[in-house]
Write a structure and sequence with these properties.
With 111 residues, this protein is α+β, with helices and mostly antiparallel strands. It is built from three helices and three strands.
Length: 111
């Protein structure tokens, strides 16, 4: 799957450019993106808007985060909550999972 070297989104096969960053996708992320990190799924959200909100809070607390969007958002740059049944997955380093869940629960309590 191709990735955006700027925002680190993973896209579906065949997509050539990130709709948000307007840069050409790459087959692999650069090594500076912590390839040694073991990523664990944190939570599925109903779209990239919510995922970006949570990602911002996690990064503010020093926790890197990966977002895996649904095929429609990845392929066409659709932003919003999401189509019915579609979801956006969040991944965090496995050793930060407990802290990430606590931050996520605080965010979700206010939505």
């Amino acid at each position: 799957m191709p990735f955006c070297p700027e925002c680190k989104y993973e896209f579906v096969a065949g997509v050539k450019q990130c709709a948000d960053c307007l840069v050409e996708l790459v087959d692999e992320l650069p090594e500076e993106f912590h390839p040694e990190v073991k990523w664990a799924p944190l939570h599925a959200l109903p779209g990239p808007v919510y995922a970006e909100m949570v990602k911002g809070a996690l990064e503010k607390n020093g926790i890197p985060c990966l977002i895996q969007t649904d095929a429609l958002a990845s392929a066409y740059g659709v932003q919003g909550t999401a189509m019915g049944g579609a979801e956006t997955l969040l991944f965090v380093p496995e050793d930060q999972l407990k802290k990430s869940k606590k931050i996520l629960s605080q965010i979700l309590a206010h939505i």
